[in-house]
Amino acid sequence: MSTDSAAVEGRIVASGLTKVFGQIKAVDGLSFTVEPGSVTGFLGPNGAGKTTTLRMILGLAAATSGTGTISGVTYAQLPHPGRTVGAVLEATSFHPGRSARNHLRVFCAAAGLPDKRADEVLEWVGLTQAATYSVRGFSLGMRQRLALATALLGNPRVLLLDEPANGLDPEGIAWLRGLLRHFADVDGRTVLVSSHVLSEVEQTVDRVVIIAKGRLIYEGRLADLEGASAGVVVRSPTLDQLRAALAPLHVTITSRLDGSVAVVGATPEAIGRAAWEARVELHELRAGSSSLEETFLRLTADPTGTLEASA
Amino acid sequence: MIALLRSEWRKVTTIKLGWGMLLGAMALAALGVVAQIASNGTPGTGVPPLSDPETQKSIAASASSAYLFSVVVGIILITTEFRHFTSRPTFLLEPRRGLVIAAKAVITAGVGLLYGIACVVVSLAITVPWLSAKGVHVDWVANGLVVVMVGALFVVAIFAVVGLGVGVLFRNQVAAVISALTYLFVVEPLVAIVPVVREGYRYLPGGAAAALTGAARVQTTLLPNWQGGLLLLGWGLLFAFLGWILTVSRDIP
């Protein structure tokens, strides 16, 4: 990824970000780039270092080494941070006794925004009816919406959202998907969405940054992740003969839980031809696009298996 | 800075924190006044009569007991931010953390001042009619009672800022409140009576506050009134500095 024009408006660049807590490297030399006009998924299992990374980029936590920049400068150097970046770090940043509207007005005041902005964003996220209720009684889904409303107060061109789909019902996830796509496609904003569940953001994101144990595992287009690693699912009653038939292709064959195998390193066409030529009976032969979640889990479970983006 | 002050003030007024604490502070101040006036004249206590300026000062200083509440309020106002993570949007909207803490300190001191005013009003509302009913003449200015009451306001406001510093240090609300109250209820009173360290009491926050309000409840020498006030201001600034330096140097949770 080129960094020669890191100062692009709205671009987020992490460069060698490292955070050490005592003996533990929570984030370890993490570098990636998030482009404006796209939705980027920031993926990794719980405890992978996603929130810590976001906190460093947002200037809430000091990096042990490395830098995080937005539009070419650190968060603290942004002229109007509240109007440039909207961020949600887990949907917990509310005093339970404060009403939704008062919560937003507290931060309207801090950002120098008019109070009516609070009602505008409440309407955006569909919380107008609940504006005067204490956050204490809010469901997790409502808290997510209020957190998003807080991030949107300053009409920012960069959005960093930590697990925004967590606790949303399917309808809410669909709504969030539409909103994020609109921000990126129509408004040209930068949207970075973290999640520990790939399927949650799979249909929303253009690109993904996958980390595990604080290290970068994969950065690139989601489609390339599939092509590069998902492999081909093959089912055969005579697996030994299949292995022999595929040996000349130099593929990697791994067993799947359902008794089939995943073949990485060859197209379905090549595998089918090899099997047919060796007269191996096949019961299933398909590109493993549905195993994206498996790929994600396998990648993040074994951080040594770093995968290069083919893009 | 105006924006931050407005934001911090809204944080105070949009939660129901204050009322219970405020009522508690007013009740304690009232209790101090009532106990001193009611018990006065009981044989064997050795307390000068109500007409004595020293007794009147001691009654007027009752409002300063609100510092026990204002220190807790100062702790709560900051630790509630860490507890509920409202610190995050706060420092995202204003990354210059020193400014945020300065605004917080001003508002916290203001809340402390309001507590002090409420307690002074309560103690006056009891003292004035009661003493006039007893036929005791009170000269508020000549006897230095006004100075005592202004001192009490100052003490209550400064202790709120002390609470802010303690809150930033501990971050955990329960730990901060317990530590502060243990210090004020146990450590300082012990220092005031233990022979060797007794002389140091006058330099502690409580000792400086006692010097300022002239509420001589201890067996050791206190500083002159104005020196106590300056020293207390110094303690307040020290804790505000503590809050500032820890906030700018540590990660925001």
Can you tell me about this structure?
The complex is a heterodimer of chains A (311) and B (253). Chain A is an alpha/beta fold. Chain A has eleven helices and 13 strands. The radius of gyration of chain A is 22 Å and the shape is elongated. The N and C termini of chain A lie close together (10 Å). Chain B is globular, with a radius of gyration of 19 Å. The two termini of chain B are 23 Å apart. Chain B has helices at 2-13, 18-39, 53-60, 67-84, 87-93, 97-133, 145-170, 173-193, 205-213, 225-249. The mean pLDDT of chain B is 92. With 253 residues, chain B is mainly α. The interface between A and B is medium-sized, with 34 and 25 residues.
Mean residue pLDDT of chain B: 92
- The rounded Rg of chain B comes to 19 Å
| Biggest beta sheet summary of chain B | none
- The pLDDT mean of chain A sits at 88
Give the ordered list of helices and strands of chain B: HHHHHHHHHH
Say how many strands of chain B there are: 0
Question: What is this structure, in a nutshell?
Answer:
The complex is a heterodimer of chains A (311) and B (253). With 311 residues, chain A is an alpha/beta fold.
Summarize the helices and strands and which ones pair or pack:
The complex is a heterodimer of chains A (311) and B (253).
Chain A: E1 12-21, E2 24-34, E3 39-43, H1 50-57, E4 65-70, H2 81-84, E5 85-88, H3 100-111, H4 116-124, H5 140-152, E6 158-162, H6 170-185, E7 190-195, H7 198-201, E8 207-212, E9 215-221, H8 222-230, E10 232-235, H9 239-246, E11 252-255, E12 261-264, H10 268-277, E13 284-287, H11 292-301
Parallel strand pairs in A: 3-7, 3-8, 5-6, 6-7
Antiparallel strand pairs in A: 1-2, 1-4, 8-9, 10-12, 10-13, 11-12
Helix pairs in contact in A: 3-4, 4-5
Chain B: H1 2-13, H2 18-39, H3 53-60, H4 67-84, H5 87-93, H6 97-133, H7 145-170, H8 173-193, H9 205-213, H10 225-249
Helix pairs in contact in B: 1-6, 2-3, 2-4, 2-6, 3-7, 4-6, 4-7, 4-8, 6-7, 6-10, 7-8, 7-10, 9-10
